[in-house]
Amino acid sequence: MTAGGGPDSFTAAGPVGAEADDLGETRVRPAAAGARPSLAFDDGTTEVARSVVVIGRNPAGYDGEMIEYLVPIRDSNRSVSGTHLQVRAAGEDLCVTDSNSTNGSTGTNAAGQKSELQGRTPSLADVGAAVHVGDRSFRVDRA
Questions:
Q1: CATH code for the domain in which residue 54 is found
Q2: Domain FHA, which positions (predicted)?
Q3: Of 22, 56, 83, 88, whose CB count within 10 A is highest?
Q4: Residue bearing the bigger pLDDT, 8 or 53
């Protein structure tokens, strides 16, 4: 987790220290009208992430868990757990959380840096990032 208790990120970190001071004031990036995060799977299918999505071979939520929809993905090698990963969208942001899956999940940011996702710890996935669940993967896009 980051110091503020927010999600870990597998995106490249921005400048820090004296270099960050040279950037001046904080600027707000305008959101593209109607742009929602989408998941472009390695089999060519695409899912728009509207709020909470659970991905797996046979995904299911826990009792009382608020889930918008379930995304079953085929995996003949059984490298993907039944309930493998949770994806949470809030506006333009997308957080992915491994559900303590057997084979784990990894994220690769747009710069090609790969990192393992820690179970039950949200990680920020920026546009262009890839998320690997077992032998399957999806890329984060905008709908």
A1: 2.60.200.20
A2: 53-105
A3: 56
A4: 53
Write the pLDDT tens digit of every residue in 118-138. 999 999 999 999 999 999 999
Whether residue 108 lies inside any domain: the answer is: yes
- Confirm whether pTM is higher than 0.85: no
pLDDT digits (tens, 9 = 90+) for 46-77: 999 988 999 999 999 888 888 999 999 999 99
Q: Are 62 and 82 a contacting pair, CB within 8 Å?
A: no
Give strand pairing partners of 41.
138
> What's at 141, amino acid-wise?
D
Kindly state whether residue 124 falls inside one of the protein's structural domains. yes
Q: Give phi and psi for 46, each to the nearest 5.
A: -135, 140
Looking at the 3D structure of the chain, how many domains does it have?
1
